[in-house]
Write a structure and sequence with these properties.
135 residues, alpha+beta, 60s Ribosomal Protein L30, Chain: A, 4-stranded mixed beta sheet, two-stranded antiparallel ribbon, 2 helices, 6 strands
Length: 135
């Protein structure tokens, strides 16, 4: 495995992710921001943040699988949420949990969560991009 996830002593442990990833692989993979589109380009989960988060994570997983990788190779995620407020965290975590169960993953790479005014397609509530390192 090219990625080791750690929580260094002196930093808080966060349930949603690890603070640091150590990459030892040889190929960097940059996955474009994934939105809640299915394979046909139809939006999944209109108005449902949890459903859209789940679809975004599944799309990241599909993109990684397409180049011979998986979530085990993810070094960093960036999550953009429209009109973010802290009260949306349970919905975000619900979608993440459902996607993780479907993908068979438990480790969570470092992540940044950014609130944005809008995304490129009206109705999309979240976009997730990933950086991975493959061995």
């Amino acid at each position: 495995m090219a990625i080791t996830l750690v929580n260094p002593e002196g930093l808080p442990e966060v349930d949603a992710y690890r603070q640091v990833s150590i990459a030892t692989g040889t190929r960097l993979v940059f996955v474009a921001g994934q939105v809640a589109w299915d394979a046909d380009g139809a939006t999944v989960g209109e108005g449902d943040l949890a459903a859209q988060v789940e679809q975004c994570y599944l799309n990241v997983g599909t993109a990684l699988a397409g180049v011979g990788g998986s979530f085990d190779d993810v070094a960093k995620l960036t999550v953009y949420v429209v009109d973010w407020t802290p009260d949306k965290m349970p919905q975000l975590m619900e979608g993440l949990g459902r996607a993780a169960a479907k993908l068979g993953v438990t480790a969570a790479p470092p992540a940044s969560l950014l609130g944005v005014a809008a995304l490129d397609v009206p109705g999309h509530l979240v976009e997730i991009e990933a950086t991975a390192v493959l061995g």
